[in-house]
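User: Predict the structure for this protein chain, please.
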Amino acid sequence: MFSRGSFGAFKTAAQGASKRFSTQSGPNKKTIYNALMCVAASTATGAGLTLYYLEKNAASANMEAEGLHAPDYPFPQKKLFGTFDHASIRRGFQVFKEVCAACHSLDLVHWRNLVDVAYSEDEVRAMAEEFEYTDGPDDSGAMFERPGKLTDPIPRP
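Assistant: Here is the predicted structure, written as structure tokens:
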């Protein structure tokens, strides 16, 4: 199939190629740098093309163009100097105390957070004193119960 001359030429070419692609000395830093720069450039190009495609061919979810408008209610707290409806906050806390507090807690909310929002300081102090909190130790080292203060958290159910 191969003559002796062509086989010898093929053998010499194969040996030369194996010497050229030999990794005994290891890859040099310039080759690694070029490879990493090529990968970074192709990644940036791919990301850019993807963003361009998504910008031009995005699925349209524009409700305004479809004629659907979200209702716009005139909430008083949205204005520059708007405030909350304090009577509504008071009613909401009353509902929480009577209904929701049976299962849910406001243990991250302290009594002081209700002052000047829905109740006066005296009203909140009176509500806090309705609950007993464990405090101490006293002079003998024993824990004792005391009425609640404004700095106490609202108790758990």
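Residues 39 and 135 are 64 Å apart (CA to CA).
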